Amino acid sequence: MRLDRLLGIFLFTGGLLLSCGYTWLLFFSHLERLKWWAIAIPVYFIILAMAFVAAWIGWIMVTTPPPKPLGDVTEEMREKLEKLRKELEQ
Asked: Same structural domain for residues 41 and 22?
């Protein structure tokens, strides 16, 4: 069997088991403390992931140099175009 099929079977089975276990824990468990943790842990990880994405975007914005002014870019393109025309004429 191919590796991608085995990985797909693993992910599918794991997803089903996780969703069934989480549903049982949240709605059918009689332990109130477990119900609280079943909500608190996923919410914590979602907030952590959102904070990580915000920090990552901020880091990218800080470390990315500003773009060249449009006038410089068009001047460079004109120079390259003239150079190419001269090469083609020869």
From this structure: no
Pair (41, 58) in one structural domain: yes
pLDDT at residue 76 above 90?
A: no
- Domains: count for the chain: 2
> What pLDDT digit, counting tens, does each position of 4-43 carry?
999 999 999 999 999 999 999 989 988 888 889 999 999 9
Tell me if 34 sits within 8 A of 25, measured CB to CB.
Answer: yes
Identify the sign of the CA torsion 45, 47, 53, 58: negative
Residues 20 and 35 both lie in one domain: no
53 plus 82 within the same structural domain: yes
Backbone phi and psi for residue 78, each to the nearest 5 degrees, phi listed first: -60, -45
**pLDDT confidence of 48, banded at 50, 70, 90?**
very high
